[in-house]
Amino acid sequence: MSFHSRTGTLVRLTNGSKTAERTSATNEFNNAIVFSERPLRDNELFEVKIDSKLNTWSGSLEMGVTTCNPDTVSLSASSTGLKNGTWIMSGTNVLKDGLAVKEGYGPDLERLSVGDALGVMRTSAGILHFFINGEDQGIAASGIPANVYAIIDVYGKCTQVTLTACRLLDPNQQTFLANQLANEAIAEATALCSNEILAFHEKCGSLVRLTNDNRTAERQRPHGEFNNGVVMTNRPLKADELFEIRLDTMIDKWSGSIEVGITTHNPSLLDFPATMTNMRSGTVMMSGCGILTNGKGTQREYGQFNLDELAESDRIGLIRKQSGSLHFYINGIDQGVAAENAPEMVWGVVDLYGMAVKVTIVDDQDVIEEEEGAGVSSSYGFLYSRSSLPSATSSRRRSHIIRSRHYSESESDSVCSDHLSTNTSDTQTQVSRDPLTFHPVCGRNVDVINRNKTARRPNAMDEFNHAVVLSNRPLLPGEWFEIRLDKVIDKWAGSVELGVTVHDPLCLDFPSVMSNMLGGTWMMTGNGIMYNNETVIEDYGYRPDQMKAGDRVGVMRTKDGCLLFSVNGQNLGVAAVGIPEKIYGVLDLYGQAAEASVVQAEETYNLDLRFHNRHGSNCVVLNEGRSVSRPHPREEFNDAVVMTSRPLRLNELFEVVVDKMVDRWSGSLECGVTTLNPDNLEFPSSMSDLSPPGTYILSGCSIVQDGYMMRTRYNCDLEQIETGSRIGMLVSSDRCLHFYLNGVDQGVACSDIPDNVYGVIDLYGACAGVSITGSTAPSDSQSPASIVTVPTTQQLNEQKAASAHRHRFSKCCGRNILLRNENTTATRTKNFDHGIVYSADPVKTDELFEIRIDQVARQWSGSLVMGFTTQTVSESQTIAITQATALDLHSSTKKTWLISGSTVTHNGEIITENYLPSLDRLEVGCKVGIKRCSDGTMHLYVNGEDLGVAARHIPRNVFLIVDIYGSVESVSITSKTKNSRLQNESHVINETLPVKPAFHTNEEGYDVDTRAKSYSFFTCVGRNIQLRNKDTAACRVNGYNQAVVLVSKPLTACSPFIFKVDKLNPKWTSSFVVGVTNQQAESISSLKSALSLTKSTWLIKSNSVFHNGKKIENNYCTDLNNLEVGSTISLSIDNERSLHLHINGVDEGVAAKCMPDPCYPLIDLYGKCSQVSIVHDEDGRQFPKEDREKADMENGIKEKTKVPTNTNCSYQQLCDRLRLCISLPDEFFKSKFNKCFCDSCHSMRGGATHKVRGSPGKEYTVPVGWYRFGLKVKPRVKSMKIFDNWNVAYNGVKIEAVRKILDSGDLISVANDAVQQTVSFAAGDEKKPDRFESVPVILTPNLHYASCHHFTQPVDYKDAKTGKLYQVKLAFEVCIKPGSFNVGPQTLDTNDLLDSKLNSNEMEWATKERGSVEIYGLLIQLTPLCKSS
């Protein structure tokens, strides 16, 4: 298969018509359509790979199928312009003949990268599927006719594609697809043949539980989840048929409520959305008081009622009439036409959203019984009819009166009576039994939630008033009604208003603003104290509109009738006298005040301080929000940032105690404060990445503000803490930030801290768990009673121990799974899919995890799927299982091995066929087990029989995954754990058994591999190779080639393969080739050279890197052809699976990334290299460990391995003395990154003169003859991977401008015709030179060019120690962002500056882009001068 010869006008076909390129890609973005050369066969996958992209345009590759014949069709500029039966995937949409038929389908094609693959397939059933990197994106369209051509539009950013595959779908995949289609057909047939009585369909939202013969639907976990509660009718509605439901249960926690409507989507085929208003086709919903059609509002004000204001026992119904009009009914009252021309086949839909928790379908008999009692009489003597509730507030009041039974009869009789009369002492005794909260009857724009303790304006950004709420009972004499502001917005003027009133909430017609109320109302407002809408005290001493989140305001009536107000506990004095005895507290959430909570009388203010429920992905919050820990402290070291649940108050100490430390990582706890709100924060991997304004962090002993280090050597060093240490932070009243260690103030860290800062903790590196202590003040003399004792995570973990127990399934499971018997039995409750379950803990080595088949349903096709996954599963932080089957699990970072039917797959690709007869034959009672053996192999056991190796190289700490699919409906665990300690109630993973680490560090700082991995050469070698010395030496005995030798064991992280050159034969040219391959030695036949390997192989030859025989990088390293006898070479793979080459101990950098596992080292003894031998140090010593974690990185620069250095280098000492003379502060420098490039030191590292850096790479000169002083860099260097992705260049500088540049961090612009003028400004002129802003910064990859007299001015220097004269030149070594500079030719007319390896037409790089340059080195060159000069 290839591309059709007829294409768009800008397409050029190459590579045998298998590659299509858009010509003039920088000037044109369309007219690049290509077709398949013939129509696609059924189930034939047509796939292309993206070869190149250009970011100039928007839009990207588009693909699809068309019935148009390429020979005759009139080509349009783009594929979406084709008609007459053309289906195209564009972005995330599927279009037919240019019109969208499916939105939100699959990933956005514009985000595909170079190397990604896109495919299309039409099945034999006429269904269209798209594939991205081999992963099926599901059904895109149906009814596709036969004889369609594939069509590709090389559009926008995509400039070239290559045809990679045109094959029939694998038979196993076809079988699975057939099973899926068969099961879907069964499910649809079942739905359409359901009982004629209306009920809910068994397929529903993930949180819905159906009872009462599927006529009652309830949203599970209503206090933790507010959506995923969509449920539909079991069959389509008939014309003029009433579908009516009754509200059974509601909660006051959420905003929004039930939504009801119709849809044309068949529930058996629908992928249920989180909320039905997300549907973009065939759906009409009533939401609130409006009508939404396909998710868009079509009627803003519909009917007389708002669904958000309905109460329990209210009914909502709908009828699609014969004429096609849709009507909604509230409590039997027709609300009028909601939509016209509704389709004939529609299903009823209910969305149990927000406050709505449970509903029941009611039929005609239920309605008759309710209508017989159309009025509801309460003990208060009122009669409410369903039709007498026109307003939202009255509806809420009516429902409260019907439900309220906890008020006393004496209070009930006084409702709506004379409010100025006083209550008896009995009444006061009765009401005092109730805790003081908010009354649920309130203003129309306020919701009372959190068990009536919190009031909020849900639409605070749209509405500023009608948010009055009263206390649930009258205030007692001397009782404070105090509220705490939880949320403040800055959109409106005015803020919270607090006071008292004689009006009862059940009888009050709530005003827009409570200060407008007449007849017994006193309010503290921004205008002072108001009584009956008149200001009686203008300056009361405090303005509520100045209050911030966290502030408290209270009101109290004394026994003698005086009214007092307080702010943050400070009594403001008498505001009024003669206050009646029976009064209610009043809160008006006006203007800026969006949310407030009642402060209980017994509440201690520090107890509300918790960790926020939103946090980093690698930590869990426990102990009711007072403890936090990293669940896998020895496997992960970051992504564990957590913040306080609210902003800290002034002079409030936020203190934590360290519960757990591990010795696996360097670096430790980081803490501080930030203005960022955790509700809106995308949590970074570490706190040092928190760079927006208002972030202050203590990291080690350094203070970092907004991502920049502002202070070092602070009194407290967090890297010295240990288990039991207490660390606190406090913002004082003078806005200074203090840190405390074990209760001792470490002094002012920084000042001018803004308002409303949250406490931040980063469980980084060695620190794995902390708990809030409960201390509120920094004094060491606090009494024990004033400090809250909270059990630490360590104490909680030690509270439970038990004997051996069965394995358990994790609570993280598919939406159709029900777990029973202490999570040892898993049952699929409905349908045939969404039955994935995981083990609760990682499966231990040589431990069998076995399950028994309990229930089988043969009407479904397919069967159990079982395997291992590296996906971490935590019951405290569940992952979202959206995949319907385990075979849909594909991830670039997580690996999965599965056994399905008779095949074994790895990340969706078949690695073994016919491994066993078939899991489809399992019967009830059969036992299936799986084990990871100590050699890393996966074995399957059926009824106790080991079926052999299913897969190899399974890592440690994998989780079991079982897909209860198809015919298998229920399984139970039969195996037991080996560990005697169970997980405790907090579900923190305990390290109950000591695990010997794979590596330890000896006294010299070297990594020692405790597994004693010893490398040797594989006995199957090239025909000219002879192995010696127990297969650790390889010698070429004949010719100059056919001497490829592989190593018997794969590379592992931190265990390098090291060899040395033993013999060289000068008779030949070139030398050895070294690299790695994913192929095992048994599968490789005799080769003439290593470059003949064209599958999963990376090689380094000379100074270049090759992948599968093709060169991918030049000038990577020192030329291997120049190495001498005795040179040592090593290969290593770091923790990020990047390949490194070391020559004589010097790391040459990353040769390739994303290496597969396993990787076997290989050597090609080519040319003059005739013998090598593996280096084995007797004490197991390897190269010094590299700083593998961010905790071991300072300012973004990774420390390299120990390299040979000349500690007595006279040139280095001379440069050190010069730097002292220049008087540059030490704060600018990082001495560990200093490097000498004198001839002696540089030759010890291999002597390379040029290197390549950046993406795309650009060559630059190595600063031979110079000395580099390392500079501190910004934290962005690490997060943006600047040292990997940016280019290297030099900037010549005059000595008088060095300090100014270091102070500002930016280079000074120097124009070729205005050098002196710019330098004088750099030296300290107060006025900018004319045209200063228009002068770009000039950089160059040639240091010799940068140091010429035109860019830098040499000065003479006399060394005080030797008395010798030297000429001094200075330059900066920088990284510059690719694409931020313009490349120009050499402008200086001199030939002595030319470099034969650098293009003179690309010698000068000019940039004006701010922030595009990162300075990381100050270079100094000293040239001796003769005495005469």
Q: Measured on Cα atoms, how large is the radius of gyration?
A: 37 Å
Secondary structure category: mainly beta
Query: Order of strands across the widest beta sheet?
Result: 1-2-13-4-9-10-11
Describe the sheet with the most strands: 7 strands, antiparallel
Report the average pLDDT across residues.
79
The total of beta strands comes to 96
Helix share, percent: under 10%
> Strand share of the residues?
25-35%
**What is the rounded distance between the termini?**
76 Å
Ranges where pLDDT stays below 50 over 5 or more residues in a row are 171-179, 371-432, 602-606, 779-804, 979-1012, 1178-1204, 1311-1333
General shape: globular
Q: Would you write up a description of this structure?
A:
It is globular and about 110 Å long. The longest helix has 22 residues. The chain has 1429 residues and is mainly beta. About 13% of the residues have low confidence. Strands 1-2-13-4-9-10-11 form a 7-stranded antiparallel beta sheet, with no helix packed on it. It has a 7-stranded antiparallel beta sheet with strand order 14-15-26-17-22-23-24. The chain has a 7-stranded antiparallel beta sheet with strand order 29-30-41-32-37-38-39, with no helix packed on it. The N and C termini lie far apart (76 Å). Helix content is 7%, strand content 34%.
